[in-house]
Description:
Layout: E1 2-7, E2 13-18, E3 22-29, E4 33-35, H1 48-58, E5 63-67, H2 68-74, H3 88-99, E6 101-105, E7 117-120, H4 125-134, E8 139-142, H5 144-152, E9 158-164, E10 172-173, E11 183-190, E12 196-202
Parallel strand pairs: 3-8, 3-9, 5-6, 5-8, 6-7
Antiparallel strand pairs: 1-2, 4-10, 9-12, 11-12
The structure holds NADP nicotinamide-adenine-dinucleotide phosphate.
NADP nicotinamide-adenine-dinucleotide phosphate (NAP) binds at residues 27, 34-35, 39, 41, 44, 67-70, 73, 105-109, 121-123, 143-146, 149, 172.
Amino acid sequence: xxxxxxxxxxxxxxxxxxxxxxxxxxxxxxxxxxxxxxxxxxxxxxxxxxxxxxxxxxxxxxxxxxxxxxxxxxxxxxxxxxxxxxxxxxxxxxxxxxxxxxxxxxxxxxxxxxxxxxxxxxxxxxxxxxxxxxxxxxxxxxxxxxxxxxxxxxxxxxxxxxxxxxxxxxxxxxxxxxxxxxxxxxxxxxxxxxxxxxxxxxxx
Length: 204
Ligand SMILES: NC(=O)c1ccc[n+]([C@@H]2O[C@H](COP(=O)([O-])OP(=O)(O)OC[C@H]3O[C@@H](n4cnc5c(N)ncnc54)[C@H](OP(=O)(O)O)[C@@H]3O)[C@@H](O)[C@H]2O)c1
């Protein structure tokens, strides 16, 4: 649980506890794809301003729930600090990534090569619900295939989309078909390179 404090009418501080949030974040094209029909997402690479935002976004997250495909793309961050001439932003992200816990969902992966990582063979919504109730920090879920399952069972509390100024015409959708969600806009931010961050609360 995440513990906070509030002051009641008698001016006494009282403890409160809330569930950790499950957050889906994706860098997407304007037409809603995280990768184009060739599987490319070089157009989604953040510039320094967006990278700084992503680092600050990820910093408080305690656990990443990964589909096996996204995990395999992210694993390089485990050793990124050993590569010479990395930028301060990359080193910062590597440190953030390494200090979070990771759960990788896969029926095929035999082992993992990052610390603080375990494999789950099934996505069990009840287990994730329990995780949200007991986690000390918020949790993220990705890529889109795994996130779709969490969205479909109503586990995702917030969606954060970094919309890149490009239409790619097809590919891997950032959001699944056959899911209807009423959303509350929490915030928006425009970046110098034309990316827009949109954040939404689900289930309003
Ligand atoms: N726009 C960007 O900035 C950006 C950044 C990174 C990646 N991407 C794109 O995102 C893609 C990754 O997302 P994705 O949606 O394709 O895949 P994903 O959600 O990361 O991973 C899918 C895999 O997770 C495992 N999985 C899913 N549901 C499961 C369940 N219920 N139980 C057990 N295992 C389960 C399966 O692994 P097994 O096959 O091992 O069973 C499945 O093949 C990348 O390939 C890339 O194209 C885009």
